[in-house]
């Protein structure tokens, strides 16, 4: 549970730092970490007889990584005017 909370705090802090500093790279790093985490949790081999605790923790991991991808979209991609070398005119 501590690792889950630390990951959530890291992703949220990257999003907030991106919001405060105006630098979209921090949010993109958080989104990248979340995408990797999503793949690790989703494609992990699960036993046939999972306990309720394991199912609940997997759901919590999905929520953490979905928050990171959402922050990456909001604070990273939508504010990034330099993507594809397109300047705002």
UniProtKB/TrEMBL annotation:
Keywords (A to Z) from UniProt: Membrane, Transmembrane, Transmembrane helix
Domain of life: Bacteria
Segments crossing the lipid bilayer: 25-43, 59-79
Protein name: Uncharacterized protein
Native source organism of the sequence: Thiosulfatimonas sediminis
């Amino acid at each position: 549970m501590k690792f889950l909370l630390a990951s959530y705090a890291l992703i949220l802090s990257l999003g907030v730092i991106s919001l405060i500093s105006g630098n979209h790279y921090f949010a993109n790093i958080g989104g990248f970490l979340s995408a990797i985490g999503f793949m690790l949790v989703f494609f992990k081999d699960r036993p046939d007889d999972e306990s309720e605790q394991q199912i609940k923790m997997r759901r919590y991991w999905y929520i953490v990584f979905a928050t990171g991808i959402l922050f990456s979209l909001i604070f990273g991609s939508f504010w990034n005017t330099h993507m594809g070398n397109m300047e705002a005119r």
